[in-house]
From TrEMBL:
Coiled-coil ranges from the UniProt annotation: none
UniProt KW Hydrolase keyword: yes
CC terms in the record's Gene Ontology section: membrane
Domain of life, source organism: Bacteria
GO term, biological process aspect, one: proteolysis
InterPro entries: AB_hydrolase_1, AB_hydrolase_fold, AB_hydrolase_sf, Peptidase_S33
Assigned keywords, A-Z: Hydrolase
Protein name according to UniProt: Proline iminopeptidase
A single GO molecular function term of this UniProt record: aminopeptidase activity
Domain AB hydrolase-1: 21-256
Length: 271
């Protein structure tokens, strides 16, 4: 099903299931919806962000533009209010939307986000290299040169394998994330990352979050290579937040589906 934005961009979107509407915001930026294995007792609305996956490859690329696209998805499906669940960069997008439109969000799921500051990146780089182990040299080689589509996918699978705890199953999980393969939009990723570095300021965001009354569930994977202390200031700032830590890496609904579903059902869904 196609969603047309106010500037004419065509977005892929899909709604399945019944019950309270939950709109999902995938990670990236520049990736696509990977919530195919997510099972919640709700009406799940999935979509590919602008320039990504099955959506039209065109800009402009910015957080504000992506948030406006998210609102177009909400309107397309006739939702006055919705549960908003975002993963990784999508958690940041969902938080930004909730801050701008709290009246349209019944509850916020903030899954594996990286908080409000930038101090996490150095520790992340060290943890990433350590967990990738023998594969780090190949990752560096691929990153450092032009790649064909098969090598693009190989690089992504290598990179995503660090998101899981058990090395015996990590590559299989990463392969699931890369199937189907739509190709990373590096232009989108670079544009929004550069914008975030200019504008995503912890002190301003803490102040804004103090006024956000929307019930918020923060879900962390205890073994995420991104240090979870990065989310502490967000938890402290939000007046109505619950934090759940699961024994997983960065993608908890794949490694601990029952526990993830239980947490989301308990804290996000009213039925």
């Amino acid at each position: 099903m196609g969603v047309r934005t106010d500037d004419g961009c065509e977005l892929w979107a899909s709604a399945t299931g019944a019950g309270e509407p939950v709109v999902l915001c995938h990670g990236g930026p520049g990736l696509w919806d990977m919530f195919g294995d997510l099972d919640l007792p709700a009406r799940l609305v999935r979509w590919d962000q602008r320039g990504s996956g099955r959506s039209q490859r065109r800009g402009p690329y910015s957080t504000a533009r992506t948030a406006a696209d998210l609102d177009a998805v909400r309107e397309h499906f006739g939702l006055d209010r919705m549960v908003l669940l975002g993963h990784s960069w999508g958690a940041q997008l969902a938080l930004r939307y909730a801050l701008d439109h709290p009246d349209r969000v019944t509850a916020l799921g903030y899954v594996s986000g990286v908080g409000l500051g930038w101090d996490w990146r150095e520790a992340f780089s060290a943890n990433f290299e350590a967990r990738l182990g023998d594969g780090f040299a190949r990752w560096e080689e691929l990153r450092g040169r032009a790649r064909d589509e098969a090598e693009e996918r190989e690089l992504a699978v290598l990179q995503w394998s660090v998101e899981f705890v058990d090395p015996t199953t990590a590559t299989a999980f990463a392969e699931r994330m890369a199937t189907p393969w739509f190709g990373v939009n590096h232009e989108c990723n670079a544009a929004i990352d550069a914008e975030d570095r200019r504008t995503w300021r912890e002190d301003e965001l803490v102040e804004a979050c103090r006024g956000l009354e929307v019930p918020t569930l923060i879900v962390d994977g205890a073994h995420d290579v991104r240090p979870r202390t990065a989310v502490d200031s967000l938890e402290r700032a939000l007046p109505n937040a619950t934090r759940v830590v699961l024994d997983t890496g960065h993608v908890p609904w794949l490694e601990a589906p029952e526990e993830f579903t239980a947490a989301c059902t308990r804290y996000l869904l009213r039925g």
